[in-house]
Amino acid sequence: MLERLNRMSPQQRERMLSKLPPERKAAVEERLDRYNDLPPEAKKRLKDEYDQFQQLPAEKQEAVRNMFREFSQFPEERRPEVRRELNHLRRLSADERQERFSSEEFRHKFSPADQKLLENLSGVLGQP
């Protein structure tokens, strides 16, 4: 969505955003500003991740959305650590992920809820 908004003229973007409730419009504008501030390689990574998400079957997309909603309910102080671990797990093969999940460090570093979310998300979004 952010790429689409960026490709629009300022007038087109304003027309589209004006249809949103004020809080939603402000949130989209904030995300657009943050996106535009990213370096090109970060924008490419986000686009690649979005393309990967779009390739998932509808039921898996919905499962991922639900998991991210669950993640948004995590305490603010836990999110950065869980996000870093997810990014790490996504780069591992399935066997490497299983090894990581079995490690003592992983079991001690993350709560059972963290572990479950990380296992589920990395399984859907990670490498085969």
Question: Main beta sheet, described?
Answer: none
The global form is: elongated
- Secondary structure class reads mainly alpha
Low-confidence stretches: none
> Radius of gyration, rounded?
17 Å
pLDDT average, as an integer? 90
Total DSSP helices: 9
Percent strand:
under 5%
How many individual β-strands? 0
Q: Estimate the helix proportion, in percent.
A: over 70%
Order of helices and strands: HHHHHHHHH
Structural features, described:
The chain is mostly helical and 128 residues long. The chain has a domain at 57-128. The chain contains nine helices and no strands. Helix 6 (79-90) packs parallel to helix 9 (112-125). The mean pLDDT is 90.
Name the descriptors.
single chain, mainly alpha, 0% strand, 128 residues
